[in-house]
Amino acid sequence: MASDQNFVNFVLDQIKNVGVVTAKKMFGEYGIYVDEKLVGLICDNKLFIKPTNAGREFIENVLEAPAYEGAKPSFLIEDKIEDSEWLSELVRISVKELPTPKPKKKK
Fold it and tell me: What Pfam families does the record point to (predicted)?
C-alpha cells in the first residue's frame, strides 16, 4: 500500500529547524531528505528514521522494523510522530551522524 500524500505532508510539517526538508518519491513510497541527506523513509504511512547511535540514545525505548521487505531495520516512529519538537530533535541529531552522500557521477 502506497503512502498517502497527506501523511507525507504532515510528517514534513512536523520537522522544523533542521535544514531543507524534502520528500522524494521512491518506488511508490517516499525518502525523507535533509539538505540532500537521506534520513528516513515513509512506507505504508509509517515513518522510519535511519538508525544512528545518537538517535538510539535520544529515543531510549527504540522500536525497530524494516521499512519494506528485505530492508535493514530502522527506527519506527509511532507514538511521538505528533510531537514536532521531539521529532525535529531526533532528525537533527541523526543528520549529524549520517554520512554525507557521495557526489553523483556525471554521465
Answer: TfoX_N (PF04993)
Question: What single-letter amino acid sits at 103?
Answer: P
**How many other CB atoms sit within 10 Å of the CB of residue 88?**
16
Burial of 48 (0-12, 13-18, 19+ CB in 10 A): buried
| Residues 58/102/20/49 CA torsion (nearest 10 deg) | -30
Q: Residue 13 corresponds to which cell in the numbers above?
A: 510539517
Task: Report the DSSP beta bridge partners of residue 40.
Answer: 32, 49
pLDDT score recorded for residue 102: 80
Single pTM value for the model? 0.91
